[in-house]
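Summary for the steering committee. The consortium agreed at its last meeting that each partner would contribute one worked example illustrating the joint modelling workflow. Our contribution is presented below. We chose a case with several input lines so that the handling of multiple components could be demonstrated. No manual editing was applied between input and output; the record is shown as generated.
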Amino acid sequence: MQGISINSHQLAQIIANIAKNFDVYGTISSEGKLTFAKVEKFADIIIPTPKTRIPFKKILWANHQEIDNLPFTSKNKLAFVGITNCDVLALDILIAEMATYEFLPKREDILVVSTECKRDEQCFCTAFGHDKVVGFDLHIQKERVGYSVYSGSKTGNKILKENGLNLKKSECSLKDIKLDLIDKFDEKKLSSEINDRKSHELLWQGVANNCFGCGACTAVCPLCFCTRQDFSNKTDGTSKICLNWDSCFSKSFSEIQNHYDFRPENVDRLYNWYHHKFVRAYKDKKHFLCTGCGRCVKACPAHLNQHHILDAVEKKKEVHHEQKN
Amino acid sequence: MNKKINLNYREYSIIGRDEISPGVNLIRIEGQIDFIPGQFIQVALPHIGEATYAICSDPHEKSYFEICVRACGNTSDAINRLLIEDKVQLRGPYGNGWPIKELWYKDVILIAGGMGLVPLRPLIFQMIRDRINFNKIYLFAGFKSAEHILFEKELKSWQKKLTKVNVLAEYATKDFWGQKGLITEPLETTKVNPKKTIALMCGPEMMCPFCNNVLLGKKMKDDQIYVSYERRMECGIGVCQHCSVGKYLVCKDGPVFRLDQIRDEVGK
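What follows is the complete predicted structure of the assembly.
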């Protein structure tokens, strides 16, 4: 794909113009900390963009949200500026999962300005074949001098035109994502191997023995959206139905009447996590609830590497648990 | 394009309540819900919480419907304390319900353990109404003790209308009108034509594997046994993932599953 070279002033101009019409959220550095939050000024946006610990999930699918008063519906004009390719894919998947409910805005109602990502050792998006940058309205890439901008939709074209940039004057090309030493998964095989729990029972047991069951992986995962329905009671006497985010690693997640738990062991809960992401979602909508962003690997206090676990399940080998102090 | 699903609550008022066994209330709610026997509704009490109940009244009754509530949690405790004319919020019905057409012109074995009789009750009403469509109907209803028996009058009246009604209590005195023992005992002595029989089952998680073994021992196959699964239900519309059973969600694909669909999950 062809793009246009721009300098930082032009980029600031584009983002300032977007900010006039949209609520802009993005990866910013605030008081020295990396966070996904409301963008106040262009200088905060970091390109190439590293992964924030908590993804865009906290904006669209907050931990606690009242059903009558959801943060974003199709009325709001929402823009994500400075979001990595894996998160753009995750956004598409999240919206597809919620397509039959009225909880999220449509994809057309969100302006996505993705940015070149800064890879780290936990990334494994290419294992799912995500080596091309896709799904954006605009994409910004850092060049040796200045930046280059690409349009991926009509909205993107329109914004470029409004900023006086001509697409025909193409000078740069879009970079692919390259990660070393990562083999591509065979999706069907991965899904069917995970579905077949019995033949991998030892592996799951081994992983569960090392897992603390803390649910940190679910907290940081952009595609962990399980909820618990609750009432938020106000001091003025009113009560509203709300959805509270819930982790499937918590013991109460699968508890029914009289404290009967049908996933009593950590291995059952851990397996359920993989089963939902790679079997149930794949059966229903033909996508995995994982884009290989590697946040879970980074967040795991037990140093479990989810990529290696998937690799071991697919290739029927043993997991090598990293020993770190 | 599918119709968008949302959590739309409707308000209904309670017109009757009756304690049918210790801690279990049959609550009658004014209004009409079109439902298939076996489907469930979500009943919410603002400030307190929400719980899942199978509708247990006759599906042909147009002026009211009933739910059977055993007090064993926050919400069910509060629902059991409600009085006539109190309001409840509810949404639904959800789920697939019992496969009634599969049962036509076949022998039917109904197995209910304790509160498992509740989702089977509307089906029994319907089967009695269309009795000509079904061959033999056996009902096995097991309870913890004689005083825990639900719908006692109806069980007695069904004895004339169904082929055989076995009411069992694990603990009972000598003058108990039913049988003493576990549900598997009369099930084992019942003659079954394995080619022409369908079994429907609802009960505690512990009961299902034992009954399945008895039925499979009678040369019935996995695809002739249907189980209504009870799981922690939160949203009822397939978002929250609390109710997953293997590849399926109870709220979207269930609560009634054919045994071959969920073979690995039974007894877990």
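Chain A has a mean pLDDT of 85. Residues 187-315 of chain A form one domain.
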